[in-house]
Design goal:
Helix content is 22%, strand content 24%. It has eight helices and 19 strands. The protein has helices spanning 53-60, 146-162, 176-183, 198-206, 264-268, 282-292, 304-313, 331-336, and strands at residues 5-7, 10-13, 18-20, 28-30, 45-49, 66-69, 74-77, 80-86, 94-100, 103-107, 129-133, 167-170, 191-193, 215-216, 231-234, 251-255, 272-274, 296-300, 317-320. The protein binds zinc ion (ZN) (2 copies).
């Protein structure tokens, strides 16, 4: 029996009668994490990992009907044993483990395998069937260690400061921004954020994640000399808006896994691209899949066909799963989320 099937409303567990990250409103929704394409409004009840509660309330409203589980805690529902395990993607992100009559399925949600200081690290979970994401499921996607990227970002910021220029870094407001904040060298200058970023910083700080001091960029006027020493974190949607005018002659950059692709930086029209993703790269996906010991792999998001073919050639029962998940590194996904 399949413990998860694709329905028009989203991924559905028939024996448990609940959905995982549904894209249409349902009665019971298990949410892997708070990104806009996975956590949507309108569900009657929500269940998520305890560290993700603040994110969900901040994004979907304080009044949602929300139940939480600690990582690893088990819940029995209609004979299905459900537990949530760290996915290493963003604060509170979880893989959903389902066990029913001896069968074990794990739905990964989004994940990355390199540990970072802003969320619990990815934990491989043994299962018979693994539903994996595949946002960067092509062999060309290999991430440099994040320490190298943070060093690049700090050097770029320092060089701009020495030339009297603000450094504007575009990145997704939830997850990526906080990961970058944690990697910044606050000794270089002031750290400013767009209004879309600061509410998430508050949630991270409340959860005990150490972030450097940040200021609202909107509180600074154009003539303020501090702006020319500052780094500014803003969502991609702020690019080209009148909000940018206060920074005068600035240098800009974009932090995303897509920066690994030649031409992306130019298309974005920014001075620099930093290869930083909250998703697993190709070796990370293959490692995670192997760690589960699963014989059957269902692939969602992104390069489904390439990964399905690769796994099939290695003797796994692999197939694609049609979902409506997007990609938070993409500016259009950014605009679609609150
Ligand atoms: Zn995500
Ligand atoms: Zn996703």
């Amino acid at each position: 029996m399949d413990l998860v099937i694709a329905r028009p409303e989203g991924l559905y567990c028939p024996p448990g009668d609940f959905y995982i990250d549904p894209w249409r409103p349902v009665e019971r929704a298990v949410i892997t994490h708070g990104h806009g394409d996975h956590a949507r409004t309108g569900n009657a009840r929500y269940l998520t990992a305890e560290p993700g509660a603040g994110v969900l309330r901040s994004r979907l409203g304080a009044d949602i009907n929300l139940q939480t589980l600690a990582y690893g805690e088990r819940l029995d529902h209609h004979g299905v044993t459900l537990s949530l395990h760290p996915a290493g993607h963003v604060l509170g992100s979880a893989q959903v483990r389902l066990e029913y009559q001896g069968e074990v399925w794990v739905a990964s949600g989004d994940y990355k395998v390199e540990p970072d200081a802003t969320c619990a690290p990815f934990e491989p979970v043994r299962c018979h069937t693994f539903i994996t994401e595949s946002t960067f499921g092509l062999p060309i996607y290999r991430w440099p260690p994040q320490a190298v990227i943070f060093e690049q970002i700090n050097s770029w910021w320092r060089a701009n400061r020495d030339q009297g220029k603000a450094s504007v870094l575009f990145c997704y407001a939830f997850g990526k921004a906080q990961r970058i904040l944690h990697g910044l060298d606050a000794g270089i200058g002031p750290i400013l954020v767009h209004g879309a970023v600061e509410p998430l910083n508050r949630v991270y700080r409340d959860a005990g994640v150490a972030l450097p001091e940040t200021h609202y960029a909107g509180d600074f006027i154009r003539s303020d000399p501090l702006l020319r020493q500052a780094i500014v974190l803003a969502p991609p949607s702020a690019g080209g808006s009148s909000w940018m005018k206060r920074f005068g002659d600035y240098s800009d950059a974009f932090a995303s896994g897509w920066m690994r692709l030649r031409g992306t930086r130019r298309r974005r029209g920014v001075d620099r691209g930093f290869v930083l993703s909250d998703h697993a790269d190709w070796p990370g996906l293959l490692w995670a899949i192997e760690q589960t010991g699963a014989e059957r792999v269902m692939v969602t998001h992104g390069s489904v066909n390439v990964l399905v073919r690769y796994l099939s050639e290695r003797g796994l029962d692999a197939r694609g799963f049609v979902t409506e998940y997007g990609d938070e590194d993409d500016a259009s996904a950014e605009q679609a989320s609150p």
